[in-house]
């Protein structure tokens, strides 16, 4: 596996904002109803993506020192967020530079 290309800190921050917006949009359109397993699955996936985002965003955006987590975590966090964002790679706001 190769490393993703460099993206600026501004682009990382935009990536985080993009993922948050998509998760919020998924939450808004996925109201579970009795017997609708697909809605439960969508909500579970949204919860997982939100957990990944909240774990990695503070390191990727520089608000948490990566040494507090582990050496090299900034690039690992950025890569994790890039992978999460591929869920919406056909969205008009998705940037090709974010591809892992």
Q: Note poorly predicted spans.
A: none
Gross morphology is globular
The number of domains: 1
Largest sheet: none
Which bin fits the share of residues in helices?
Answer: 55-70%
User: Structural class, please?
Assistant: mainly alpha
Helix-strand pattern: HHH
Radius of gyration: 15 Å
For this structure, the quaternary state is single chain
Strand content: under 5%
Number of strands: 0
Summarize model confidence as the mean pLDDT.
77
The N- to C-terminal Cα distance equals 10 Å
Q: Count every helix, treating DSSP H or I runs of 4 or more residues as helices.
A: 3
Explain the overall architecture:
- It contains three helices and no strands.
- Helix 1 packs antiparallel against helix 2, helix 1 (9-29) packs across helix 3 and helix 2 (37-60) runs antiparallel to helix 3.
- It has one domain (9-98).
- By secondary structure, the protein is mainly alpha-helical.
- The longest helix is centred in the middle third of the chain and has 24 residues, at 37-60.
- The chain starts with 8 loop residues before the first helix and ends in a 15-residue tail after the last helix.
- The protein is globular and about 40 Å long.
